[in-house]
Amino acid sequence: MRILYIITKILTFPGAYLRAFWEHLTCRILKLPVERDGYLHLDETCGHVEHGMASGKFAAFLIETGPGFMNFITGLPLFLCGMIQVRALGVRYADVGWLFFVYIAALYVGASLLCSLFPMVEDALNAHFLIYQAPGKNPIGMLFAAIPHFIALVGSYLEKFCVPFLLIAGGLIYSFLHV
Questions:
Q1: Are 98 and 58 in contact (CB under 8 A)?
Q2: CB of 78 within 8 A of CB of 46?
């Protein structure tokens, strides 16, 4: 399964690279040490940054959800732009010339960004422990973090097994084959 994970991250390298960039930027803001340079390693950290674990609740929540949120808000408009133009409106190369390739690129980059939304499982589990199990629980903070944390925790396990990639690739294939 690890090889399939690496293959999907290489196929969606723009999204994996940008997610790792957002993660690196978040680590710099939170002053978390980055342990290894580079973003696309050929192991389970492909598309992520190896960093020290956050020790504060907010820092753990931010490192868990912030980079994925940034990928989401940049990837969804690109994906929708490409999908609407190419699929819904049926734009072809003969209609718009070179602009067709811009739509295809927007669709690919948007899909690749949406394939890399979730944190590593270790980051999600660290945030879960600090927010919900560590001493000094804050009920307001726990309530505020519940939905984004649940999405990130479940998504981290799903991404570990390439489910987002398979769903997006399958959805794209279905949308173009289904007339």
A1: no
A2: no
| 116 closest CA partner among 24, 46, 41, 27 | 46
Q: Quick one: tokens of 113? A: 């960004």
For the stretch 126-179, pLDDT in tens is 999 998 888 887 888 888 989 999 999 999 999 999 999 999 999 999 988 876
Q: Please give the Cα distance from 54 to 134 (Å, whole number).
A: 13
3-class DSSP state of 41: coil
Spatial distance between the Cα atoms of 97 and 99, rounded to a whole number of angstroms: 5
Ordered alpha helix ranges (H), 41-161: 57-83, 93-96, 99-114, 121-128, 139-160
pTM value surpassing 0.90 = no
